[in-house]
Write a structure and sequence with these properties.
The structure holds two protein chains of two kinds.
Chain A (H helix, E strand, L loop, with lengths): L1 H17 L4 E11 L5 E13 L3 E21 L38 E22 L5 E11 L2 E13 L6 E17 L14 E20 L2 E14 L7 E4 L6 E4 L5 E13 L5 E12 L4 E14 L2 E12 L28 E15 L2 E12 L4 E12 L1
Chain B lengths: L2 H13 L26 H14 L17
The chains are: A mainly beta, B mainly alpha.
């Protein structure tokens, strides 16, 4: 009798786990930074279709509309450079971000005209992704992915493969190995980096960069309500890794000149990710995570996070999250009231390469209108010690068919 | 102690843990979407990863298949 009960329960669970997970999800992101910086509107869709119990196709698409301003050094006396002093007037037509020949230098700039402020940005991005999952008889999984992301100044192509292998008959332990490759075609203003095109004409040239991601993970079911996962990753990059829209000031004390920043053409990064998932109650769960990162630009970061999900009503699930981030500066980054670079090979004033910390808090809710239709809304606040403050909302629906 | 070994240490420690052998019919909670990293909303995770990538100097650790956020 006991055996038959167990068999029935097992079959019921198996049937539940094998039911088709076909759905379409539509989400909308509105991201807004304080002080008139970046605003992003990004509608997205996701379609997931199961073909039997062994194969799944997942498609995603995003359209990003980015506008606003981003800080960098500029020549305050220049009105023809396409650079606008902060703040850009509200409602004014913003020029489309165009390749500006920062790295031409345009000759000496008087010290009083060296300024740090926001330049206007207007950008569009279209991104598509496809992921195919195949489950073998052992329930091991093979995942193959393709991604495209197209912008005015960047074409991105990505291919990825990942294999998950169960180590025991109960499927409580698994290892995952994955690799991906991204090819970037960067549109770079002609200058020192782009021999072969006319730097004096202000034209641009495509320069490639190559980005790899190798990852291995081990996951372990700890109890009927908890499991943990540990991952190691290695991220080598080569090619044009400079940000063509970020400037530095060289020779500020003698003959200041504003030029494009310059970063090394290689970067080797790695790290470890530890995650723990616990179903605290039949309705609530806890996620804990921590990532450690380091690279040969001398950047280190620590990222702990916590998430809570709780279905407080039969049709309502709430979620809350907190993420903390702290990083050290890249070896060639200089942070000061004015850059003091002279003839150093590498130089950057990009605050993303500075030493800073950040935190993010998120509150969200998902409401099931029907068994096959749910609505979601979340609000997040993100703040850095660099004075960057942002908030964003994500809202949308998912329909199971 | 070399850095590669430091990375592998958590994996080795975890693999050595003595844990209960959980049977398939005991995994209902583990299979719930609320036990996924994104809570069952992949697009939300992609948005967040893109924001982190755009505003911070480091990345990685979230897997490779599907390409994450398609960040640049």
């Amino acid at each position: 009798m006991q055996l038959s009960r167990i068999s029935f329960a097992a079959c019921a669970l198996l049937a539940a786990s094998l039911h088709a997970d076909d759905y379409v999800s539509v989400q909308y992101l509105h991201y807004d930074e304080a002080d008139g910086r970046i605003t992003v509107s990004a509608p997205s869709f996701e379609i997931n279709v199961d073909f039997g119990v062994d194969d799944t196709l997942n498609f995603t698409g995003t359209y990003d509309a980015i506008s606003g301003a981003s800080p960098t050094y500029y020549d305050a006396s220049s009105s023809a450079s396409g650079i606008a002093e902060k703040p850009a007037s509200p409602g004014a037509a913003r020029p489309r971000k165009a390749p500006i020949s920062y790295d031409l230098g345009r000759g000496p700039v008087s010290r009083e005209n060296v300024a740090f402020g926001n330049i206007d940005i207007s950008e569009r991005r279209n991104a598509l992704g496809a992921l195919y999952t195949h489950r073998f008889g052992s329930r091991d999984e093979l995942r193959l992915g393709l991604n495209w992301s197209l912008e005015y100044d960047l074409y991105l192509y990505e291919g990825s493969a990942e294999y998950m292998h169960y180590l025991d008959p109960s499927k409580n332990r698994a290892v995952t190995f994955g690799a991906s490759y991204q090819y970037h075609a960067n549109l770079v203003p002609c200058g020192p980096y782009s021999s072969g095109c006319d730097a004096s004409s202000g034209s641009s040239k495509q320069i490639a960069s190559h980005h790899y991601n190798l990852q291995a993970a081990y996951s372990q079911v700890l109890s009927p309500r908890s499991f943990a996962k540990a991952s190691v990753f290695y991220l080598p990059e080569t090619g044009y890794l400079t940000n063509s829209y970020k400037n530095v000031v060289r020779h500020y004390d003698t003959a200041p000149v504003i030029v494009n920043e310059r970063r090394p053409d290689t970067r080797h990064a790695g790290g470890v990710m530890l995650e723990y998932f616990d179903a605290l109650t039949p309705e609530a769960s806890l996620h804990l995570g921590y990532r450690y990162y380091l690279d040969d630009w001398k950047v280190r970061s620590h990222t702990p996070y916590i998430k809570l999900f709780d279905r407080i009503l039969p049709k309502l699930r709430i979620e809350a999250g907190y993420r903390y981030y702290v990083q050290s500066a890249a070896a060639y980054f200089y942070s000061g009231s004015r850059d003091t670079f002279t003839d150093e090979r590498y130089a950057s004033s990009d605050e993303r390469l500075s030493a800073f910390n950040a935190y993010e808090t998120t509150l969200g809710a998902t409401y099931w209108l029907r068994r096959d239709l749910r609505l979601n809304f979340s609000y997040s606040h993100y703040e850095q010690s660099t004075r960057l403050r942002a908030h964003y909302i994500v809202t949308g629906f998912r329909y199971d068919f | 102690m070399s850095r590669p070994f430091l990375f592998l240490l958590p994996v080795l420690v975890l693999s050595g843990c003595s844990v209960k052998d959980v049977k398939p019919w005991e995994k209902e909670d583990l299979a719930s979407p609320r036990m996924q990293r994104d809570g069952g909303n992949k697009l939300m995770r992609q948005y967040q990863e893109h924001i982190y990538f755009s505003k911070e100097g480091t990345k990685g650790g979230i897997g490779v298949a599907g390409g994450g956020c398609g960040c640049n």
